[in-house]
Specification:
The chain has 542 residues and is α/β, with parallel strands linked by helices. It is 33% helix and 16% strand. Helix 6 links the parallel strand 11 and strand 12.
């Protein structure tokens, strides 16, 4: 379109025609308020806090596109009064203030997401986030002072379309929707560990190391792996392991499934708990196509309470596993009865990145000043393939590295933040060895799965992540999680991979040891006992 001239607070300026006015004003150094607007997304314009005067009319800047000749004013006595009035009106309803549990049917999902009506400003960001995921579980009901956010037909979450991706919580600008707070459980376990004779172990997901630093002043994507480990030790954890090790185990098992079924049937990844709930609720007919592999968090927990416990001579019943993850649905996953061995849950407590940061702050740990420390052996050793599990396409690339070791270590054709990616892996002669697809975001996942079930597409391997950008954009990550932030975290994880001496799971000495001493080989009876599971229909949703 080209640049056009207009006036901003009495001064001539220019910008790209059609660009968003709010973004331009903020980029110009003017701190214009606005709660409901999200960079790169269609504007909602409900909070009205970004109201400006344009050529004599009052309009929300987020809904205005730059055009030639506009006269824009951002600060006047009248605008100040209007913003104060809008601020007082935000969230005013005739409803009694309450904490609304979205889940009211007793189940392991109970209370994982809740809405505090005292904080809700009715901006609709949560509803839009749910719509963008093509789940449509949340809706704005009633009008005027009776308006409120509800699940469809006010259903309990277990009976609704919700898949616990946590995007509503992540996108809520005022903290009205929140995941279940498990920090007290974790802190209580740490405080009582000695008196109860328990060993408290932490495991950290790949994307935590490139995100938690944002809560302490580091730029998005900064790798703070060593400080993260040090912080966990300062909190009182006896051992700190890397869920990347569990990711390497997942690669070994999932890539073995791929090789077993290659050319015979499709294998769909199973490490994303949000996607698993989507499959259980919307695509029960696709459940037989899912890999039987547990997620990296569950595999790591299973190895802590079996292989490692035996190696250390510790009673597995006295071990408490706390996982740090970018995901709200992981809380549900940790509670699943399907993810247990020898009568013990694989993971006892699951915390989001935000909860982990809150614990650090609560205990007054100076995160930025912490020295870098290393994970504990053996379950703290991982490959670069394990690290990239935190990005969309990373699971596929890591599996391909094992399945096709003769190929160059990087499979860049499966990288990128496109909603759906398709790639063909070819040999030196140009023959197709495998056809793969990757989807991130539930809406994109549903498009891909529908195409496969309708017979319009055929693949050997499909990776699905419920969140935009994969775990890097998870529902439990720091706010804001915009596209540019996800891109930065993604670069950080690829940098982690490139810096590793070992980049393929099969070359990880820790992985070799656990198979040699405990599991035998991928897909063995022992590995199936500890590393695999099955999922079941939750009643198909329309």
């Amino acid at each position: 379109m080209g640049k056009v001239e207009f006036s901003l607070n009495g001064k001539k300026t220019s910008a790209e025609e059609g660009a968003n006015m709010l973004e331009f004003i903020r980029a110009s150094g003017i701190a214009l308020p606005g709660i409901c607007y999200e960079e790169g997304k269609p504007p909602i314009g409900k909070c009205r806090m970004c109201v400006v005067e344009i050529s004599g009319a009052y309009r929300t800047a987020c809904t205005v596109k730059i055009a030639a000749g506009l006269e824009v004013k951002t600060d006047s006595a009248e605008l100040k009064k209007m913003r104060e009035a809008y601020e007082k009106l935000l969230g005013k309803t005739e409803l009694e203030p309450e904490i609304k549990k979205f889940v009211c049917v007793p189940s392991q999902a109970c209370g994982i997401l809740s809405l505090d009506r005292k904080k809700c400003i009715l901006c609709g960001a949560c509803v839009r986030a749910c719509d963008e995921q093509n789940i449509n579980s949340l809706a704005m009901v009633e009008r005027g002072k009776a308006a409120r956010v509800e699940t469809e037909f006010d259903k309990p979450i277990d009976l609704s379309r919700c898949v616990l991706c946590g995007k509503c919580s992540l996108k809520c600008p005022v903290g009205a929707i929140n995941e279940r707070d498990d920090t007290k459980r974790a802190l209580d376990a740490l405080e009582k560990a000695k008196s109860q004779g328990k060993t408290i172990v932490a495991e950290t997901a790949p994307s935590i190391r490139v995100a938690v630093g944002e809560e302490f002043g580091f730029a998005p994507g900064t790798r703070v792996t060593g400080k993260m480990v040090a912080a966990l030790r300062r909190l009182g954890f006896d051992y700190v392991f890397d869920t990347d090790f569990g990711a390497d185990l997942t690669i070994m098992e999932e890539a073995s499934e791929l090789k077993t079924h290659l050319g015979k049937r499709l294998v769909v990844t199973s490490c994303c708990p949000g996607w698993i709930i989507v499959a259980e609720k919307f695509y029960p007919e696709a459940l037989p196509l899912l890999s039987t592999c547990k997620s990296p968090q569950a595999m790591t927990g299973a190895m802590i309470k079996s292989y490692w416990a035996k190696k250390k001579g510790i009673d597995a019943k006295k071990i408490v596993v706390v996982s740090i993850l970018p995901c709200v649905a992981k809380k549900f996953e940790a509670d699943r009865p399907e993810l247990a061995n020898d009568g013990l849950r694989n993971v006892d407590i699951a915390l989001t990145t935000r909860e982990f940061a809150a614990m650090i702050t609560q205990k007054k740990i100076d995160f930025a000043s912490l020295p870098d420390e290393d994970f504990d052996d053996v379950l703290g050793v991982s490959s670069g393939g394990g690290a990239i599990f935190g990005v969309t396409g990373g699971v596929t690339e890591a599996a391909l590295r094992m399945a096709f070791p003769e190929h160059a270590v990087e499979f860049k054709e499966v990288r990128g933040l496109e909603g759906i990616k398709v790639a063909e892996i070819k040999d030196e002669c140009g023959s197709v060895k495998a056809r793969v697809a990757i989807a991130n975001g539930v809406g994109n996942a549903r498009k891909l799965v529908d195409a496969v079930l309708d017979g319009k597409e055929k693949f050997d391997f499909i990776e699905i992540m419920a969140c935009e950008g994969g775990c890097a954009g998870g529902g439990g990550q720091p706010k804001p999680t915009t596209k540019s932030v996800i891109e930065a975290r993604t670069r950080g994880l690829y940098g982690e991979d490139e810096g590793k001496k070992v980049r393929r799971a099969q070359d990880n000495p820790g992985i070799k040891a656990v198979y040699r001493d405990f599991l035998g080989e991928p897909l063995s009876e022992q590995s199936r006992k500890y590393l695999h599971t099955r999922f079941h229909s939750r009643g198909k949703k329309k």
